[in-house]
Write a structure and sequence with these properties.
heterodimer, A: mainly alpha, ABC transporter involved in vitamin B12 uptake, BtuC, two-stranded antiparallel sheet, 12 helices, about 0% strand, B: alpha/beta, Rossmann fold, 2 domains, six-stranded mixed beta sheet, 25 helices
Chain lengths: ~300, ~600
């Protein structure tokens, strides 16, 4: 470890900014993921592939058609919602017939994910794509002079989006009529059906919302990393799971908090540990193992039936 | 069509087509033989976990560990394959324990989540150790001295190993361990309350799966002769999973069929269609898309995989409810001795519950409930829906842990102990929503109750010693006798899931009795029974009491409760609101208000 780096306040502040924005991205991704888990007890392993397709949808709109960022974001969120709803219809709804066997729905989502990624590879190839600079000015702001902390517009946008989306999703679930129906289904699906709630319709709405969140994350990752490839889902999939378990499965605020923690830990490991950038992809796994060992229901989760 | 010969012929046709197709492909290009054999081994690795209702995506990671370890030991240290492969398997086993132990005591999804990233971490390690592994550029084994010798022996060795594995799974499937795995696969909770240590079985299965995948990796390394960490990507793990899912994890040969089919399919498709549809020839994603489609379609349309369509050993002859149980008015009885007279334990009650509470995320399902059970009596536990009755049963049987309070069984605290130990200590239970092992025969369901008493181990199973067969036969005979006394003999060979509702309830009680318990916890035993059946059940419960059993009966059926119970406890909103004899409880004003009045 380079001790001189520890004493450098600008370097520290820079890493906090980078870590928080990276964490904000993970949070937005994990919001949709945890929503589906919390409501349906389903681990949707095709959420990452949805996210990847959204990024490509944004790329088509902004790079190929030359439309501005708001259009890209809108199309990406719509695409995500559509893909997620399709997943529900093809991969999850048929399995809800006889109670939910969580393993079968995981397997069907793995199958769906493999198909989605393979098609993307066939269509887009393996080259890295990026959004054009024209959609968002890539020049960063400097806090404290040109030798100070760099903050890009993409970072500000990501942090703001994570904050607003967490807040909005929380309000939607707690305050709206649809949110109430979603919570009822989360608590007891068959009882909700008896109470006259159209379970299938509410589930579709849940998937639409989760898919739209994947769409937002797809745009943000494109802006932050300039690295859009068919395999990008695989890079965020395990991180999403780690974030969701860290925060407590199904917890919206937990996903935001978990994302923040993972983003900061990864950024600091890269900055301060020798070989940190080599192991950055393993950090999520280590956090996952650790949290399962000490507090499997997560930081904000409740201890329920997590035993075998 | 159901009655025709087609269902009997079709499975054999499928097997023949797959085996024949694979053999033809291997004959055409003998180099493919290794691949088919290795994929078959991988399929059995996936079977080991899926058969215990675990989803593991670690196969690619363990394959990589096995491949690199064996290759490095062979090439850099110069060990012969006969030593390098076992060393690689040892390492796989150790790693499996390290990542498995924290996860396997949790519910089933966590293993999938945890193993999802495992392969990627192994690949990172491979890249980080370029001196040993060749790093991202890979390792070429052919420069090493022992390589040529190894390559020649490879196919025969792989086939021998596969043969041993098949024998292992075949003999396991016929042992009590195999029965335990089938029980876990169908109903993990019910298996645990039948005295089966689910966590231990799953740990064993995961360990076995890791070692088998490691072996496949080692053979792969010595067969291909060069290694690249790209060989062990996540899609490899998904391929392996698809073998077991498509073939079916209910029987050991299912995954072998799945591997045979899915290994051959892309080759055949490319060969047959590639000539006419040029685009398919260079379509690199075709195998992955096929795998994905196969997973999706099989899970949705054929959840048990290919083997699901095969006839079973115990073919159910009748549809649901087609066969009634004993129609005579005889009260079934239990002949075997039962617990007998109360043990001379002085003042120690059989079961004492003190201030038991259970809070679910802020909601108190149970609050400060205390109870004292004397031996040889029947206790009723009643209350409106949501009163905490099932929570109470779950706590006592160990499926759930209390937030506070103590459960004392024959003088020993048992709260928080795993369910299988509580079951073995003499507490048996049934379930409100029945949890029979639906695909097993009625007789097998009851034999599961003998699990803890059959003293075979892995060794006797693999060697198929006479003692094991004798014990199995004894268990079978005792279970048959129990069924006979309960008037269930006629149903013994039927798949439990095909029985009528009331019969299933009686089989659940038979299964619980097979544990030879002292205390029987019955969660709504009369639900779904008609009046005649309920009355007979009542007499049967009194007969059980006469044999020395102690019972706790949760029921909504007031006639039954009032007719058989010596003592009744009434719960409402998680609290005890009344306790006493049936007459006392029936006359209690608070009970009328909370319960009877609403009925």
């Amino acid at each position: 470890m380079d001790l001189s780096l520890l004493a450098d306040p600008v370097f520290l502040a820079q890493n906090i900014v980078d870590g928080v924005s990276r964490g904000a991205l993970y949070a937005v991704y994990a919001l949709g993921f945890t929503l589906i888990f919390g409501v349906l007890d389903i681990i949707n392993l095709a959420h990452a592939a949805t996210f990847m397709w959204c990024a490509f949808a944004g790329w088509i709109v902004m790079s190929q058609l030359g439309l501005p960022l708001p259009a890209g974001l809108a199309v990406s969120m719509l695409a995500g919602a559509g893909v997620a709803a399709l997943l529900e219809l093809l991969a999850f709804r048929p399995l809800r017939r006889e109670g939910s066997d969580r393993l079968s729905s995981m397997i069907s989502s793995i199958g769906a994910s493999l198909i989605m990624v393979s098609i993307a590879e066939a269509v887009f190839g393996v080259n890295t794509r990026r959004f054009p600079d024209s959609v968002l000015d890539p020049r960063p702001f400097f806090l404290g002079g040109s030798a100070g902390v760099r903050v890009s517009r993409a970072q500000i946008l990501t942090i703001a989006a994570a904050f607003l989306l967490t807040l909005a999703l929380g309000l939607f679930i707690r305050r709206t009529r649809m949110g109430k129906a979603i919570r009822a289904i989360a608590a007891d699906q068959s009882a909700s059906r008896l109470l006259g709630i159209d379970v299938d319709a509410v589930v579709i709405v849940t998937f639409l919302v989760a898919g739209a969140l994947a769409g937002a994350a797809g745009i943000l990752v494109g802006l932050l990393t300039n690295n859009i490839v068919p395999g990008m889902g695989a890079q965020i999939e395990l991180r999403g799971l780690a974030v969701v378990i860290l925060g407590g499965m199904g917890s919206i605020e937990g996903a935001a908090l978990g994302g923040l923690i993972l983003g900061l830990v990864e950024t600091f490991a890269i900055a301060y540990l020798p070989g940190g950038s080599d192991i950055k992809d393993a950090i999520a796994f280590l956090i996952l193992l650790l949290i399962l060992l000490v507090r499997p229901y997560g930081i904000l989760g409740h201890r329920t039936s997590d035993r075998a | 069509m159901r009655r025709s010969d087609l269902p009997r012929i079709l499975p054999w046709a499928v097997v023949l087509a797959i085996v024949g197709g694979d053999a033809a492909l291997c004959a055409r290009s003998p180099g493919d033989l290794d691949r088919f054999l290795i994929n078959a081994i991988l399929a059995l690795s996936a079977f080991a976990t899926l058969h215990a209702r675990m989803l593991s995506l670690a196969s690619a990671g363990f394959m990589a560990i096995g491949a690199y370890t064996s290759a490095i030991l062979a090439v850099k240290v110069g060990l012969p394959v006969a030593l390098s492969v076992p060393c690689a398997l040892l390492l796989c086993g150790i790693v499996a324990l390290v990542i498995g132990l924290p996860v396997l005591r949790l519910s089933d999804v966590y293993l999938a989540i945890c193993t999802l990233g495992f392969g990627e971490v192994v690949r990172i390690l491979i890249v980080l150790l370029p001196g040993l592994t060749g790093g991202p550029t890979g390792a070429n084994l052919s420069t090493g001295f022992p390589y040529d010798a190894m390559r020649k022996t490879s196919p025969a060795m792989i086939a021998l190993f596969l043969g041993l594995l098949i024998y292992l799974f075949w003999s396991l499937s016929r042992s009590k361990t195999g029965r335990a795995f089938r029980a876990i696969r169908e109903r993990p909770e019910a298996a645990s309350t039948m005295g089966i240590d689910v966590v231990a079985h799953r740990s064993m299965a995961f360990l076995l799966s890791a070692i088998i995948a490691g072996a496949a990796g080692a053979f792969y390394a010595h067969s291909v002769g060069s290694l690249d960490n790209g060989d062990f990507r996540f899609t490899r793990a998904v391929d392996v999973l698809s073998y077991a899912v498509v073939g079916g994890a209910g029987q050991w040969f299912g995954p072998l069929l799945g591997a045979g089919l899915l290994t051959a399919l892309p080759i055949l498709l490319r060969d047959s269609l590639g000539a006419s549809i040029g685009f398919l020839r260079d379509f690199a994603q075709l195998p992955n898309i096929l795998t994905g489609l196969a997973l999706l379609l099989v899970v949705v349309f054929l959840p048990g995989g290919l083997v699901q369509s095969f006839p079973r050993r115990t073919m159910p002859h009748a549809g649901r409810g087609a066969r009634p149980g004993t129609q005579s008015g005889d009260v079934p009885s239990v002949e075997h001795a039962g617990p007998g007279a109360p043990s001379a334990r002085g003042e120690t009650p059989l079961l004492a519950v003190r201030d038991l509470s259970r809070v679910f995320g802020g909601v108190e399902a149970l609050r400060d409930v205390s109870l004292r059970l004397e031996e040889g009596r029947i206790y009723g536990l009643i209350g409106p829906n949501g009163a905490g009755k099932t929570t109470f049963i779950n706590l006592v049987s160990g499926l759930d842990s209390p937030s506070s309070g103590r459960i004392i069984w024959q003088g020993r605290e048992i709260q928080g102990r795993p369910p299988h130990r509580i079951a073995r200590a003499g507490l048996a239970r049934t379930y409100q929503s029945m949890r029979l092992f639906a695909e097993m025969s009625v007789l097998e369901n009851v034999i599961v109750g003998h699990h803890a008493r059959i003293r075979t181990n892995v060794l006797t199973t693999w060697l198929r010693l006479p003692r094991e067969r004798a014990e199995e036969a004894a268990a079978r005979e005792e279970a048959s006798r129990l069924l006979a006394h309960l008037g269930l003999s006629e149903l013994a060979d039927l798949a439990a899931g095909t029985l009528a509702y009331g019969d299933q309830r009686r089989v659940e009680i038979a299964r619980a009795l097979a544990l030879r318990p002292r205390l029987l916890l019955l969660d709504e035993p009369a639900a779904g029974m008609n009046e005649v059946e309920t009355e007979r059940l009542g007499r049967f419960l009194i007969d059980l009491k006469g044999k020395g059993y102690t019972l706790i009966v949760v029921e909504h059926h007031m006639d039954l409760i009032m007719g058989v119970c010596d003592q009744i406890v009434v719960l409402n909103f998680g609290r005890t609101i009344a306790e006493g004899t049936p007459a006392e409880v029936a006359g209690n004003e608070r009970v009328r208000e909370a319960y009877l009045g609403r009925d």
